[in-house]
Amino acid sequence: MGEVIKLQPKDLSGADALKHIRALMKANSKCVIFWPHANRKAKARSITQRQMLTCLEKGVVTEGPYLDAYGNWKLNITRMAAGQEITCVVIIEWSVRIFVHTAFPGRG
User: Fold this and answer.
1) Above 60 in pLDDT, residue 53?
2) Three-state SS annotation for the chain
């Protein structure tokens, strides 16, 4: 994959966001944090944490990235996981961790 970039860039493409997320996950297997909201919504929608991780590892950007109100990059990543299309809304706390804000099923 790539090396974890230490400083948050001013501009970020979807491809570069995915590279950073995957490099961070490879460097630190515990960097993905599932917000309580994400866990509640995922459970209600029959989406597992494994499916959400697969989405981060192999999905494509379907919205964003854009800077949120706190200055963190936020994006949606979508992937087929365990026979179900899911989208994860992800926030990158640059070079530290990745927050999964929520997850929801796709239309397929």
Assistant:
1) yes
2) CCCCCCCCCCCCCHHHHHHHHHHHHHHCCCCEEECHHHHHHHHHCCCCHHHHHHHHHHCEEEEEEEECCCCCEEEEEEEEECCEEEEEEEEEECCCEEEEEEEEECCC
CA atoms within 13 A on the CB side of 94: 16
pLDDT digits (tens, 9 = 90+) for 61-89: 999 999 999 999 999 999 998 888 999 99
As given in the structure block, the two tokens for residue 29 are: 């297997």
Model's pTM, two decimal places? 0.91
Domains of the chain listed by start with CATH number = 14-105 (3.30.2310.40)
